[in-house]
């Protein structure tokens, strides 16, 4: 598998044209069939204009934005002592601060993208038309923390054009034991590799191309309706359900 981080000009908040950046950047590359293009959620949000100017006079501006954006949240005073982070669940993902970010934001709070699966489809359709690809995929990625682990890694917020899971259920392991539950999450696995290649600082590489992925089923039948539920697990069915349900979450505003 080959992961190429693509250097672009900066996308400037509060709004900029992601599609023109993709067109300009990809002219330097011969895009291969069965590639997967990974785009960071931050530049998708800037493309959508999901940026709020930071008001230094508004003491609780970010906290209020988090509460409005989260599906569920825990106030900062309920998190670790001295920790200035609000824990949230948004779009069925456990993420700090509802994904709101201030890095590389030029004085803005950058929110998570609106309807990320639709955004992934729009990017997919543009690339398909512009570069005449037939079989490929798109992932919108972000970085996140893992409980009880130091550091951040990539996760997929949305995807389009390929089956997000590799299913081993019913197949046998090397000793002939039939597998009952194993499925590989292709989206988050590839997002982690792409986010590592793209970096987190001033690299200016918000897009990655992954080639020679292998054993991925491509096609538009893996569309938005299926995508939005394929990786979701109801909290009652999740193996971490008792842990998650033991926490007193507040329902997010307007949800």
What's the quick description here?
With 255 residues, the protein is of the alpha+beta class. It has one domain (2-251): 60s Ribosomal Protein L30, Chain: A (2-Layer Sandwich).
Walk across the major sheet and give the strand order: 1-12-2-8-9
Report the count of strand segments: 13
Q: Could you tell me the mean pLDDT?
A: 90
Q: CATH class, please?
A: Alpha Beta
- Biggest beta sheet summary: 5 strands, mixed
Stated plainly, the CATH topology is called 60s Ribosomal Protein L30, Chain: A
Instruction: Give the overall shape.
Output: globular
Helix and strand element order? EHEHEHEEEEHEEEEHEHHE
Low-pLDDT runs? none
Secondary-structure arrangement, i.e. CATH architecture: 2-Layer Sandwich
- Going by CATH, what is the homologous superfamily? CofE-like
Radius of gyration: 19 Å
Separate helix tally: 7
Secondary-structure-derived class? alpha+beta
Q: How many domains in all?
A: 1
Helix-residue proportion: 25-40%
How much of the sequence lies in strands comes to: 15-25%
- From the N-terminal CA to the C-terminal CA, the straight-line distance is 40 Å
């Amino acid at each position: 598998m080959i992961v190429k981080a693509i250097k672009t000009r900066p996308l400037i908040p509060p709004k900029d044209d992601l599609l023109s950046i993709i067109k300009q950047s990809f002219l330097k590359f011969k895009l291969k069939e069965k590639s997967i293009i990974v785009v960071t959620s931050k530049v998708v949000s800037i493309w959508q204009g999901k940026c709020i100017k930071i008001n230094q006079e508004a003491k609780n501006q970010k906290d209020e934005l988090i509460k409005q954006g989260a599906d569920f949240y825990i106030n900062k005073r309920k998190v670790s002592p001295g920790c200035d982070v609000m824990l949230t669940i948004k779009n069925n993902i456990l993420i700090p601060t509802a994904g709101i970010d201030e890095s590389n934001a030029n004085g803005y709070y950058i929110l998570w993208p609106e309807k990320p699966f639709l955004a992934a489809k729009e990017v997919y359709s543009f690339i398909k038309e512009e570069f005449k690809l037939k079989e490929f995929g798109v992932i919108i990625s972000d970085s996140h923390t893992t409980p009880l682990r130091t550091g951040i890694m990539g996760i997929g917020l949305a995807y389009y054009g390929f089956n997000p899971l590799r299913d081993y259920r019913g197949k046998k392991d090397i000793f002939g034991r039939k597998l009952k539950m194993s499925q590989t999450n292709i989206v988050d696995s590839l997002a982690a590799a792409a986010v590592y290649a793209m970096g987190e600082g001033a690299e200016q590489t918000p897009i990655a191309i992954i080639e020679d992925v292998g054993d991925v089923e491509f096609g538009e039948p893996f569309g938005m309706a299926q995508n939005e539920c394929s990786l979701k697990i109801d909290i009652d069915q999740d193996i971490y359900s008792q842990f998650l349900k033991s926490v007193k979450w507040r329902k997010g505003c307007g949800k």
